[in-house]
Amino acid sequence: MERKILIKNAKAIVTCDSRDQVYWDSDILIEGPEILKIGKDIEADGAEIIRGDGKFVYPGLINTHHHFFQTFVRNLTSIDYPNLMVMDWIDKIYRIFQIIDSDVIYYSSLTALGDLIKHGCTCAFDHQYCYTNKTGKTPVDRQMEAAGLLGIRYHAGRGTNTLSRADGSSIPDNMLETTDGFLKDCERLIDLYHDPGAFSMRQIVMAPCQPINCTRDTFKETVSMARDKGVRMHTHLGEGENEGMVARWGKRTMDWCAELGFIGEDVWYAHDWEVTPEEYRVLASTKTGVSHCPSPAILGGFPILDIKEMLKAGINISLGCDGSATNDSSNLLDALRIAYLMQTYHSKQRGGCVSAYEMLKVATINGAKTLGRPDLGSLEPGKAADLFMIDTAVLELTGALHDPKNIIARVGLTGPVWLTMINGDVVYRDGALTGVDEERLAAEGEALCNRVIREPSAAFKNLV
C-alpha cells in the first residue's frame, strides 16, 4: 500500500487546469506519485498531514531549456556575454568548455538542479552538448546520478556538435563527435534510461546542439532514430545563426530543419528570437514548440518574442532558464517574472500583453505539452503530485493575496518557495533540501570548480 499525504486547508490551490480553477481553503489528497482528490474537508485515515494554512499551492514549474554544466563557468568577467553577440560568445566560451571533466558535470548539475528545486521547479530538461576528452561519454549518466540524488524529474537532452572549424563551425576540434558516435550513445542512453510511462522520472531527448555547428547528416539521422525510438527532439534555433545559415545553405534555419524533417509535434526549438510572422504559421501548423528563455535574450540584446501573437497563432510556448553562462541563475521563478515584464514592455502598444497568469501557464502546462507529458503541468486528480507551496503569512505580501493566479509574476515572488514536492515526495521544505547534506555538496563542488577551472590560471588565460 502506497503512502498517502494530505495537504490540509491550503489557503488557495491554483490548478492551471483547462478551466483555470482555483480552490480556496481546500485540501489535496495524494497517494504515491498521484493526486487522488482536491476539495474541502477531505478525510484520509493514516495519511501524513502537511498543513496548508496560509499557503498558496501551484503546479510544479517545468524548465524546457538549460545547460547545467555552465553553472561552473558563470559570473565571468573574462567573457562578458552582455557585450558580445551570441556567435562571438560561443567562439570564446567553448575554449573554456573543453577543460570540463566528468566530476564538473556532476557537481554543476547538482548546483543547477538544487536551484531549480528551491524555486518551485519539479521537472527539468537539460541540453547537454559538452563532451570533452575528460568527460568521455559520461555526462548524461552523471546528470542522471545528480537528478536521482535530489529527486527531481529529469529529461536529458543528448546533444552533439559534429561540424569542424575548418568547415565553418565555432567548435574546438577536440570537442567534436561523429554522427555515428552520437547515434550510438543516444541508443545506449535510451535503452538505459528512457521511461515513456506515466509518472516517469527520467527520459531522453535527442538534441543536436545547433544547425550551424552540425552536419546535415547529424540532423537527418537524428530524425530517423528519434521517430523509430519514440523520443523527442530539440535544438537551438533562431538565436543569431540565420545569416550564417543563409550564406552557407541559401535558406533560413527553420527551412533547413523542415527540409530534414526536424520539425513537428515531437520537436521544440530553444530561443527563436529571429522568428518571423510567416514562420508563426509553420510552427503552429506543425505543432512545433518554442522554449522562451528571457534572461539571455535581455543580456544579449536580442529581439523580444511576441508571445501574445505567437500564442494567438497556436504556437506552444514554454519557459526555460537557459545555461548559467548566459543567465547565471537556475531560478525559473525569476525567469517567469522577467518574461512577464518583457511582455508588458513589448506589448504595451500592440493591443494588450500576456497576463501574469498566462505566463504561469507557459511555465507549467505548456512545459508539460512541450515535453510530451500529459501527466504533468496542472493540479488535478490522476496527474502527478508535482507542486510547490509559498507561504503567504508574511508582511511583504499583505494586500496582494486576493489574486493567487497572478501574484507570482506581478508581485515578483522570485525567492525560495516554502515546499517543493515531486512525484509525491517532499524534496525541499522550509529552506532545506531533504535527504542530502547540502553544505558538504556545496563545499565539494566549489573545491572542484577551483581545481578544474579556476586554478589552471595560465591555461585559462590562454583558452580565453
From TrEMBL:
Keywords, A to Z, come to: Hydrolase
Q: Name the residues that span the membrane.
A: none
Pfam families in the cross-refs: Amidohydro_1 (PF01979)
Q: Which PANTHER family match?
A: AMIDOHYDROLASE-RELATED DOMAIN-CONTAINING PROTEIN, AMINOHYDROLASE SSNA-RELATED
* Amidohydrolase-related domain boundaries: 56-427
Descriptive protein name: Amidohydrolase
- CDD domains attached to this UniProt entry: ATZ_TRZ_like
The reply to whether Metal-binding figures as a keyword in the UniProt entry is no
